[in-house]
Write a structure and sequence with these properties.
about 375 residues; alpha/beta; Purple Acid Phosphatase, chain A, domain 2; 6-stranded mixed β-sheet; 8 helices
Length: about 375
């Protein structure tokens, strides 16, 4: 079977020569937001060194993976033959979802941990999304919302979000509420990848005249640096169906960003980020586990050959990593840009540690 090659040359992303731009917006996208003990101490500190690329944009996105609960906090760890249960306090939610008065624009809730605490945890999290002006993606609140996209309009650009997760770690919504989270067989060892739920959402976004479609997909294999062939084929199939940007998450490590010229529109370069890694997680120190990625990009809407189109004008993958320190006797987490440390601005980690992270970035991104 021939190998599948990925184009990792971001210079392919540019506007066509004959394109007449009318409006544009900026977008910052990150991977998993996962609870970590002591995050309360990091309020308005966690994102301070990356706020320009994540919150100083028109639309900010991440995958939110730790449901909030009114129940007794759950303490669990990886092991015991089953996945850990994720649980987030109200204070930790506040730290994870905003910075100095500005919250994420949209957060994905279609992931394998979002039903860890049942209906109560899901609904509590969704209520907090609404109270903070965050668009929740992938968790319908009414049966009629199942299989439909979520729509967001900024700068006269109508963006449709579609979403799905490979599973719910064995947790199941009640029989009458199976619509609660967009779930599909995306990683089965024995069955073909099922893209029908995602395709239904894509069709819904097309019917509602979206200018640009973003797919938030929770899939892939944990701790693997490259997607498998079936996943690449599925991603490209979704692009040809109408998706313009895929934001992948779940592996907890970064995976390649593919720049794919579509058959449906030869002027269009779709971007497929197979995994953005985990922006926040526990207090791990292994270089490949603290490393993640933010995609910073510009979308432009205009006319080409008399037709309205929205393309990605520019993109910059920004490797970032978590740093833990003690300040005033409290443990504090910050997200740092790797390039700052490579340029000598940071000094919290040994040179070899930083070089190891750079090695992973070069391997995955093909720098």
């Amino acid at each position: 079977m021939p190998e599948v090659s990925l184009s990792r040359d971001k210079s392919l992303v540019e506007l066509p020569d004959e394109f007449k731009k009318r409006t544009s917006l900026t977008l910052g996208a990150a991977g998993d937001l996962i609870q970590a003990d002591g995050l309360e101490s990091s309020k308005d500190i966690l994102f301070e060194n990356i706020s320009d690329v994540l919150f100083g944009v028109d639309i900010s996105f991440a995958n939110y993976e730790s449901p909030v609960t009114n129940q007794k906090p759950v303490e669990d760890a990886i092991g015991g033959g089953r996945p850990p249960i994720m649980c987030c306090s109200f204070a930790q939610f506040s730290t994870l979802t905003g910075h100095r008065g500005r919250c994420f624009t949209a957060l994905n809730a279609a992931n394998n941990h979002m039903f860890d605490l049942g209906i109560e945890g899901l609904e509590t999290t969704q209520r907090l999304f609404k109270e903070n002006g965050i668009l929740g993606i992938g968790a319908p609140q009414e049966p009629l919302e199942y299989g439909r996209g979520q729509i967001l309009t900024k700068a006269a650009i109508k963006i449709g979000f579609v979403s799905a997760t490979f599973g719910l770690n064995g947790h199941q919504p009640p029989a009458r509420e199976t619509y609660r989270i967009h779930t599909a067989k995306l990683m089965s060892k024995y069955l073909a990848t099922d893209l029908e739920l995602l395709k239904a959402q894509i069709d819904d976004c097309k019917r509602r005249n979206c200018d640009f479609i973003i797919a938030s997909i929770h899939w892939g294999y944990e701790f693997e640096f490259f997607p498998r062939r079936r996943q690449i084929e599925a991603a490209r199939a979704l692009v040809e169906e109408g998706v313009d940007l895929i934001l992948g998450h779940h592996p907890h490590v970064i995976q390649p960003v593919e720049y794919y010229r579509t058959r449906r529109d030869p002027n269009r370069i779709a971007v497929i980020a197979y995994s953005l890694g985990s922006l926040t997680w526990g207090w791990y120190t292994a270089p490949h586990l603290v490393l993640s990625m933010i995609l910073n990009m510009k979308l432009s809407k205009g006319l080409i050959a008399g037709k309205s189109r929205t393309y990605i004008e520019s993109i910059k993958p920004i490797p970032v990593f978590r740093v833990v320190s003690y300040e005033g006797g409290q443990r504090v987490m910050r997200i740092e840009k790797l390039e700052d440390y490579l340029n000598g601005q940071g000094s919290d980690h040994p040179t070899n540690y930083v070089k190891q992270m750079r090695k992973y970035v070069d391997l995955v991104l093909g720098v």
